[in-house]
Design a protein that fits this description.
alpha+beta, 255 residues, 2 domains, 25% helix, Chorismate lyase, two-stranded antiparallel ribbon, eight-stranded mixed β-sheet
C-alpha cells in the first residue's frame, strides 16, 4: 500500500480512506492476513488514528475485515450466504444435519417489550430457548426463542428443567403447532456481551438482528431474536412474503 494524500478530497476523509484501503485489500493482502497496527497505517496514509479507525469500522461493517480476539484485524473471507427460512423445520430440535443447535433453556420473566409482543403479563415466566447456528464449522448466529407456557401445553413437567434436553422438548412441542403465519424484521445492531462471546466477536461489533413473530390461533405463539455476524453473513430470503426493513426508526416494506 502506498501513501495517499487526502487533504484536498471533498468527501469525508475516512470514506475516501476506506475506498483506498478496500482497493489495497484486493491487491496486496490475502484472506486471513493480519493488517499492520493502527499507528503504522495512520502514519502511512497521513491521517489521524480516529480517521483510520472510522474507515476500519466501515470496512468491518461491509464484511471486508474481521477483528479477532488475540489476533488483531484480518482480511475477511467472502460472506456466507445464509437462507432465512419461514419453515417449521427451524423447530426440529437440532437433529443431526440441522443448522440450528440448541444449547440451553431457562424459564424466566421476558423483557417488557417481548412480553408485550407475546401478550403475556409482565411478571409471567416464559421458556427461553438458546440456540446457535453453524455454517462451515463456524458459529454465525445466536438466537433467543421466547415461548409462553400456553404455546406448549403438552410440555412435560418431569423433563429436564434446563439445558439442551429441555430446549429440545420445547422445540418438539412447537413443531406440532400449525402456524397461521409469521412476520419478520431485520435491523443493524451491536453485539451484546453474551452474543459476542458465542459469535467470537468483540462486544459492540456490528450484527444483523432478525426478529420473527410466529403466529397461530390469532396470537403470537413464539418470538425469536436471532443475532447474525454482520461481517460474515449475507442473509437471503427465499420464501414468499414481505421483508420489513428498519433503519433509524423508519420502516418500509420490500419484497
Amino acid at each position: 500500500m502506498g501513501t495517499t494524500q487526502l487533504e484536498s478530497v471533498q468527501e469525508p476523509k475516512y470514506w475516501h480512506l476506506k475506498t483506498v484501503l478496500s482497493e489495497a485489500l484486493d491487491s496486496d493482502f490475502a484472506v486471513g492476513e493480519i493488517l499492520p497496527n493502527e499507528r503504522d497505517l495512520a502514519a502511512r496514509f497521513g491521517v489521524a488514528r480516529a480517521t483510520l479507525r472510522q474507515a476500519l469500522e466501515q470496512l468491518e461493517l461491509e464484511g471486508r475485515l474481521q477483528r479477532r480476539r488475540g489476533v488483531g484485524t484480518t482480511v475477511a473471507p467472502p460472506r456466507v450466504g445464509v437462507a432465512v427460512s419461514t419453515g417449521q423445520r427451524d423447530w426440529s430440535g437440532g437433529a443431526a444435519g440441522e443448522a440450528w443447535q440448541p444449547v440451553g433453556c431457562s424459564t424466566a420473566v421476558a423483557p417488557a417489550s417481548v412480553a408485550t409482543e407475546l401478550g403475556v403479563d409482565g411478571d409471567e415466566p416464559v421458556h427461553i430457548v438458546r440456540r446457535i447456528r453453524v455454517a462451515q464449522a463456524q458459529t454465525i448466529a445466536a438466537e433467543q426463542l421466547y415461548v409462553p407456557s400456553s404455546s406448549v401445553p403438552g410440555l412435560s413437567s418431569i423433563d429436564a428443567s434446563s439445558g439442551p434436553v429441555r430446549a429440545r422438548s420445547v422445540l418438539r412441542e412447537l413443531h406440532r403447532l400449525g402456524l397461521d403465519g409469521q412476520d419478520r424484521s431485520v435491523e443493524l445492531g451491536s453485539a451484546r456481551a453474551d452474543d459476542a462471546k458465542e459469535l467470537d466477536r468483540l462486544p459492540g461489533a456490528p450484527v444483523l438482528v432478525v426478529t420473527t413473530r410466529y403466529l397461530a390461533a390469532g396470537g403470537t405463539v413464539a418470538l425469536s431474536v436471532a443475532t447474525y455476524r454482520a461481517d460474515t453473513c449475507r442473509l437471503t430470503f427465499g420464501d414468499s412474503g414481505d421483508l420489513e426493513i428498519s433503519h433509524h426508526g423508519q420502516e418500509r416494506q420490500a419484497s
